[in-house]
């Protein structure tokens, strides 16, 4: 019930240079669970923003009254990566040795925030639920750790998809839980849920 809402929420996105450079934003109003109405859209050209500083932007909504006030900061992404199994970041023995030294007991208080990182190899799924009328699914896998989120590509028309991807996350809180969710891609519609598993970091 507000024409001047304040959210004051922060979202972290991993921006890779091979992706599109526009940040798309939509503002919606919701009357109840079933009725939603688009109040406006706007875009931010990420490549035009100065690096390593917080940019205060007032963005007018396209074709609708009102504007959106937001702070956007573009900073180098450290510790996060997506790679194939053949170029796994921890596959090099010398790199493993450097990491072991970096996180050994004598260096544990050098940087309190540098807890470590988690590497996850997403190989495949087996016997997924069929979400399409054809008896198949178009599955992709989403990994979430804290407010970091990465995802695999979609394997089309397959109930036993193989992704063979390696994901690396920086650990910000040792009490975080890794959530791995499988969805069925459904065109322009929201993806269908196919299953989920939660793994506390302390159990690894």
TrEMBL record:
GO cellular component: synaptic vesicle membrane
Membrane topology: Multi-pass membrane protein
Listed Gene3D superfamilies: C2 domain
Any matching Pfam family: C2
Residues passing through the membrane, by range: none
Localization: Membrane
One Gene Ontology term from the biological process aspect of the record: regulation of neurotransmitter secretion
Molecular-function annotations in GO: calcium ion binding
Predominant localisation class: membrane
Keyword annotations: Calcium, Membrane, Metal-binding, Repeat, Transmembrane, Transmembrane helix
Descriptive protein name: MCTP2 protein
Gene name of the encoded protein: Mctp2
